[in-house]
Design brief:
alpha+beta, 2 domains, two-stranded antiparallel sheet, 4 strands, globular
């Protein structure tokens, strides 16, 4: 049997490693240490499967008379608040996307 997908722990091991290196994340922003540890504990305790998105949405490759896709389609941070970041745009979904939350 051939399996081309990724196992559900594919990206979670990265957050396990980041939690173990939380002091590194605190070098310039002390709150990042707590953030990375809290997120690791959340995904561990809730058995969350993670994935990542690798590509920005592309505009149509062939010119058309009417192209309704906005120039600002790539996911970008538009502002940072006390509660987190606000983003606009989109990213293409990657492996495990249908199984993640």
């Amino acid at each position: 049997m051939r399996y081309d997908g990724r196992s559900p722990d594919f990206l979670n091991v990265i957050f396990t490693a980041w939690s173990g290196a939380a002091d590194y994340f605190a070098q310039n922003r002390p709150e990042f240490k707590k953030n990375v540890i809290n997120y690791y504990e959340f995904i561990r305790e809730h058995d969350v499967t993670l994935t990542h998105a690798l590509l920005n949405l592309q505009r149509r490759r062939t010119p058309a008379t009417v192209d309704t896709l906005s120039e600002e389609v790539a996911l970008t941070v538009v502002r940072e608040t006390d509660a987190g970041i606000v983003v606009r745009g989109s990213r293409l979904l990657a492996t495990l996307g249908p199984h993640c939350r």
